[in-house]
Amino acid sequence: CGGEGDGSNLTWKLDSNGTLTITGTGKMGDYLDPQNYMSSNTPWEYFKNSIRNVIIDEGVTSIGSGAFYNYYSMANVTIPNSVTSIGNYAFAYCYGLTNLTIPDSVTSIGDYAFCGCENLTGITIPDSVTSIGDYTFRNCTSLTSITIPDSVTSFGSEAFSGCTSITSIIGSAINANEVALQAKSNFFTVNITSGTSIRDHA
User: I need a surface site. Which of 109, 144, 160, 166 has the fewest CB within 10 A?
Assistant: First the structure.
């Protein structure tokens, strides 16, 4: 017998246009190999180089660890409002990903979730998110703008390290300062939504 989170609660299909659709109810499985963080064991792993678009249907409540790890051909992802968490390495090294909308239902983003997404240019983190994991956006070298809501109270280690192209940070003074310190961008503008000052990031 199966249960929520082991994959038996979800089904998937890949069409001839390279669109992977995942349907069902409940948690997605965690697919990252704990013995080898360079691979994952998703049921669609064999087809990873053919996947261009991913549609996760309403009803799925999490994106499992390593679900789309190193899917460099994937360009578009649709995440439904039913998803509350994005797992470790979920979209790490997805070089084709340029933009992503994180829905208001998500409360946590895991370690390395978007690490190495070199062509991701902008992202807005919704005000439902309270924590961002270690190295979450590390080396997203094309990221130019980031919006961090006041709801984020926990930043992981080096969550924005290597994001040297950031030129715009929107958020509270505390959160904007944290991003600036981690990213070490040479130049940026800050739109402070709350608080009064930001420290020199140099």
Answer: 144
